[in-house]
Specification:
CATH class of the largest domain in chain A: Mainly Beta
Shape of chain B: globular
Strand order of the largest sheet of chain B: 1-2
Distance between the termini of chain A: 73 Å
Mean pLDDT of chain A: 91
Strand content of chain A: 35-45%
Shape of chain A: elongated
Structural class of chain A: alpha+beta
Largest interface: A-B, 68 and 80 residues
Largest sheet of chain B: 2 strands, antiparallel
Order of helices and strands of chain B: HEEHHHHHHHHHHHHHHH
CATH topology of the largest domain in chain A: Immunoglobulin-like
Oligomer: heterodimer
Order of helices and strands of chain A: HEEEEEEEEEEE
Structural class of chain B: mainly alpha
Chain lengths: 150, 559
């Protein structure tokens, strides 16, 4: 019915895809790599703020709008774990932290959430990576990880 | 074979209109890399804004050119393989809808009232003519598809026991995917966005609109790709001087595309709120399924080419490669298609990176993404369109190719350009360089406090590659229009090279019928998209009013 080599190639292609899918699930389990959580939305996410939950746990509630993020600068101590929440007040925005694999969309009427640890001190740049109008290229924020200095 | 004057003219118009617009699209491609590399620090050049140019680049190159070409190539394929011409009334209606719609959208974009990019995510609002024009272009392509479906059903009634030609299966699979996926975007445009942009409704559910867009948006890439696949299976082995290794494999590949092209669109929305993780993971896994027909194709075509090269006296494990007709002017299509295949090796593999769920966090919406899709849509898709448009124009007008030597080297030049360009963009993307951003104003402007020195080299590579691509594109226009406007020297015809199968192949009824595959397609789409759409409806907290790209306050209806 079908050529022997062709059949082997089809089987190999399935196995290769299986290997990729296994790696993907492995990364989710072993490295805790996951995409944004799906949370129900409420009005409280539209207020930008930084909360300290306990000694090394923080929450940052980001509000994106044309063309800035609030809080524009957030100070976090080294070694803390941070829950990031992102929503938008107007159009769709992007939220990407340079060097941190945090990649969320700020969408009006929805809230994206992820959790991230900051073990190295530094200034982490947040860039809006979704076209949000003529001022899009100006839209960025900073997370400064060095506070309190020790 | 001979074609009627009518069909000939329709196909020529369907090639001429988009290629004429493509000059604007390619000009803006060049401008992108110039702005992005920080060569100029301006919001606009020649009264055309960066984001307006980006919209023109995306809509013309990725929607207008590809749709017109798919319809033109479909007309030629159906007529050539089934020996029947399409119904003149339906064909005319389709052509008029497509051309009128395109002109409406083009006017809206050129006047600067639709700078919302080709994804037109609400709540950014474009002029209604942009939405209506795009919808007319799509509906026009449906009309052609319905007509071919009728021709196919009649042909099948008269030829129950003969295997439907592979090119016809490919064309119908492609337009079935297209029809089903565009239903969602038609709903988004006509029901959600047009009344909203006219001010009849006040707000729109943004997550729902995005989900409907990506129901269409990922299947769209297979709609771009399948005409190239048809050429790889049916033309390329013959052009190389050999036979197709396995026609059955081609049928399996096309039907796998039919069932898996659509239910994977959520992999563009991994970063979106309001959509559950389970459905994102499911669609990510299915995306690996849709890679399988491409793996099959890679093997089948490589095997066919090796067979052809050995027929020409090629030997050794790899040395046979040099027996292939890379630079022969008479089979210039070989150069266009083989370069597309080479680019697609990288395009396909980077696509798997994008689809890999949490790995997508590294690359989503960075320059990695345009780096990837220029290896696909500006690789096998675009090169096949360039080569085939010159081929069809030459045959249908009976004119010899203008500057045949240049025509032979265009695909090689283009490929070198794309490889450099995509290397730069993907490298920059891994360093967080955002896509769709006029970086010359801020991130690559040394005078700005947002200057980002890491991105200088990567965006310079993008500029170098983009420059080479522009030169190749310019040479293509010289050859295309040069051929179009020279004097005819032979009788008009359509004569595709036809690849025979290497082995004798029996007709397998399962791979010569659409019904079971259509049922499976519908089932998988329902299973994967009901949760996504219900999440979008239930988890969205508020709808959004319209915004103009230039103004941070919403548009309020004037009384």
């Amino acid at each position: 019915m079908i050529d022997k080599f062709e059949r082997n190639v089809i089987i190999t292609a399935f196995c290769l895809s299986g290997l990729f899918i296994f790696s993907l699930l492995y990364a989710m389990g072993a490295r805790k790599a996951d995409v944004t959580e799906c949370l129900p939305y409420d009005k409280s996410y539209e207020t930008a703020r930084v909360n300290q939950v306990d000694k090394s746990t923080y929450q940052i509630f980001y509000v994106a709008r044309m063309w800035n993020f609030e809080p524009a600068i957030a100070y976090i101590p080294v070694g803390s774990e941070v829950d990031l929440f992102v929503t938008s007040l107007d159009v769709v925005h992007g939220f990407n932290i340079y060097n941190k694999n945090v990649n969320l969309m700020g969408v009006p009427g929805g809230v994206a959430k992820t959790t991230i640890r900051f073990d190295q001190p530094g200034v982490y740049k947040v860039v809006c990576h979704e076209f949000c109008g003529t001022g899009h290229q100006n839209m960025q924020a900073e997370i400064i990880v060095n506070f309190p200095k020790k | 074979m001979n074609v009627s004057r009518f069909l000939k003219n329709v196909i020529l118009v369907e090639l001429f209109v988009p290629v004429l617009l493509l000059t604007i699209g390619i000009y803006h491609g060049l401008m992108q890399v110039i702005y992005r590399a920080g060569v100029i620090h301006q919001a606009s050049v020649a009264k055309l804004d960066y984001y307006q140019g980006l919209t023109l680049h995306g809509v013309i190159n990725a929607i207008v050119l590809t749709t017109f070409f798919a319809v033109a190539f479909g007309h030629a394929t159906i007529a050539f393989y089934l020996k029947r011409e399409p119904n003149p009334k339906a064909t005319m209606l389709s052509l008029v809808l497509m051309v009128t719609g395109t002109l409406m959208a083009a006017v809206a974009m050129l006047s600067g009232k639709a700078s919302v990019l080709y994804t037109f995510y609400p709540p950014l609002k474009a002029h209604p003519a942009f939405y209506i024009g795009t919808a007319m272009l799509i509906v026009g392509s449906w009309v052609a598809y319905w007509d071919w479906a009728i021709i196919y059903v009649q042909w099948k009634k008269e030829n129950r026991d003969s295997n439907t030609p592979l090119a016809v299966i490919g064309t119908l699979v492609n337009f079935t995917i297209w029809f089903v996926c565009t239903l969602a975007v038609a709903y988004e445009v006509l029901v959600l966005l047009v009344p909203w942009s006219l001010g009849w409704t006040t707000s729109v559910n943004v997550v729902l609109a995005r989900t409907l867009f990506w129901f269409f948006g990922h299947a769209l890439v297979y709609f771009w790709l399948l005409p190239s696949y048809i050429m790889f299976y049916t033309l390329l082995p013959k052009l190389a001087g050999g036979k197709l290794y396995s026609g059955t494999a081609g049928r399996i590949a096309f039907f796998l595309f039919l069932i898996l092209s659509i239910p994977i669109g959520v992999h563009h929305q991994f970063g979106d709120p309001s959509i559950g993780r389970g459905i994102k993971l499911t669609q990510s896994v299915l995306t690996f399924g849709v890679a399988i027909p491409s793996f099959i194709t890679a093997f089948t075509i490589a095997a066919s080419l090796e067979h052809a090269a050995r027929q020409r006296g090629g030997t050794g494990l790899y040395k046979w490669i040099w027996k292939l007709p890379f630079f022969r002017q008479d089979v210039y299509l070989f150069g266009y298609l083989i370069n597309g295949l080479i680019l697609f090796i990288f395009g396909g593999l980077t696509g798997l990176v994008n689809a890999s769920y949490s790995l997508n966090n590294v690359v989503h919406n960075t320059a990695f993404i345009p780096g990837h899709f220029h290896l696909t849509v500006a690789g096998p898709v675009f090169l096949a369109i360039l080569g085939m448009s010159i081929f069809l124009v030459s045959q249908l007008t009976g004119k010899k190719i203008f500057l045949p030597v240049i025509n032979t080297i265009i695909p090689y030049l283009w490929t070198v350009g794309v490889l450099i360009f995509s290397t730069g963009l993907m490298w920059g993307g891994l360093m967080g360089e955002p896509r769709r951003t006029n970086m010359g104003l801020t991130y690559l402007n040394p005078a700005s406090e947002q200057f980002h020195s890491y991105w200088v080299i990567s965006s310079m590579l993008g500029l170098a590659g983009g420059g080479i691509m522009f030169i190749a594109g310019f040479l293509y226009f010289v050859v295309f229009f040069g051929t179009f406007f020279r004097k005819p020297s032979f009788a008009p015809t359509i004569d595709f090279p036809v690849s025979e199968s290497l082995h004798p192949e029996k007709r397998i009824p399962l791979f010569d019928t659409f019904r079971p595959w259509l049922a499976l397609m519908a089932l998988i789409i329902l299973i994967t998209y009901i949760p996504a759409i219900s999440d979008a409806l239930n988890n969205t907290g508020r709808k959004a009013p319209p915004y103009l790209p230039s103004d941070p306050t919403p548009i309020v209806k004037k009384k």
